Amino acid sequence: QGPVCTNLGLKPGQRLTVKGKIGPNAKSFVMNLGKDATLLGLHFNPRFDAHGDVNTIVCNSKKVEEWGAEHRETVFPFQKGGTAEITFSVNQNDVTVHLPGHQFTFPNRLNLSVFDYFDTNGDFTLQSLSWE
Q1: Distance between CA atoms of 6 and 34, rounded to whole angstroms?
Q2: What's the pLDDT tens digit per position in 59-79?
Q3: Which residue spans adopt a coiled-coil conformation according to this UniProt entry (predicted)?
Q4: What domains are there in the chain, each with its CATH number?
Q5: Do the beta carbons of residue 16 and residue 33 sit within 8 Å?
Q6: What is the pTM of this model?
Q7: Residue 85: exposure state from Cβ atoms within 10 A (0-12, 13-18, ≥19)
Q8: Conformational region of residue 55, where left means phi above 0, alpha means psi within -120 to 50, and beta covers everything else
Q9: 37-57: per-residue pLDDT in tens?
Q10: 3-class DSSP state for residue 20?
């Protein structure tokens, strides 16, 4: 488990940029954005080789203990032992995930008006976090 941030106050029109290093033997890592640890508007999970997925980004939402439908992205701009910069832009109805050379949106299924919570875990070392 990496750092946990609370009281972020991210509202539509704002964005969070995460920079860090991916482990040399990475299997997967996770970034969660939401209201708190039980209400996750976006569970972002790049998988190098985990849970039967290879080089796939799996996104989901979680309401208490209930996961939603998984959303898969096959564009995979991450490399083991490399660095990653990921920006999450909060919009009214979704979150845009900006990756190197690719972006996609994930719906705000929980209708969160503010994203207060962020955490990261897995084979990823957080180097910087910035929001505007």
Answers
A1: 9
A2: 999 999 999 999 999 999 999
A3: none
A4: 14-131 (2.60.120.200)
A5: yes
A6: 0.97
A7: middle
A8: left
A9: 999 999 999 999 999 999 999
A10: strand
